[in-house]
Each structure stands twice: as C-alpha cells, then as structure tokens.
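2024-03-11 09:14:02 DEBUG pipeline.ingest accepted 1 chain
2024-03-11 09:14:02 DEBUG pipeline.ingest length=109
2024-03-11 09:14:03 DEBUG pipeline.predict start
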Amino acid sequence: MSGGAKLQVRVAEVVEVNELIRRFRFVSRDGSLLPAFSGGAHTVVEMDDHGLRRLNPYSLMSDPEDRSGYEISVRRDEAGRGDGLTNSTIGCGAQGLRVRRCRYRAGSR
C-alpha cells in the first residue's frame, strides 16, 4: 500500500453511526475537487497518532459522482492494533491527515 500520490485533506464531518462505527468525510484542504473514483476503490489514510505514523486502508463509501469529498466508515475494535481514526480526538476540522489517490484491489474493476 505504499503507492499513490498523497492528497492533503481535512475532516469535514464525523458521524457516529452507532456505538461501534464512525463515518468520516474528508475534503481537500485547498477546496479543490478530489480525484474521481469508481466502485471498489479504496484509499490509504495517513496520519500521525501521538508520534506514530499510521497508514490504514479503507473502502470508499461515498458517491463516486461527488468529487467534493471522500467518505469512509471505521469500526472501533478495542482488541485491534489501534486506529487513530476511532480515537475521539480526531474530529471535524482535523487537518493533519493525508489520503492516497484511490486504488483498486486486483479483480475489483
């Protein structure tokens, strides 16, 4: 998961879907449209989590026709290795995030 251009984004919206799932909407920090994608695409979110650099892949959940932002959903997993996006300190307006251009898994296109 090391390839792909990095896009500077900020968190535009965080929705608590339920007690386990949070939905994040990322928009470009400069207000430009994000690159187009189609079904099956995923992105890698790069963030600093208390000095630890995290690179976590997520499937894009947003409408491919809406290039104003990307949406992902993240499931909280207390037994997991850790994911800074499930940490309640990452909220609307957070800017220290980067996403990589959309990628596709083999056979998904």
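2024-03-11 09:14:41 DEBUG pipeline.report The radius of gyration is 13 Å.
2024-03-11 09:14:41 DEBUG pipeline.predict end
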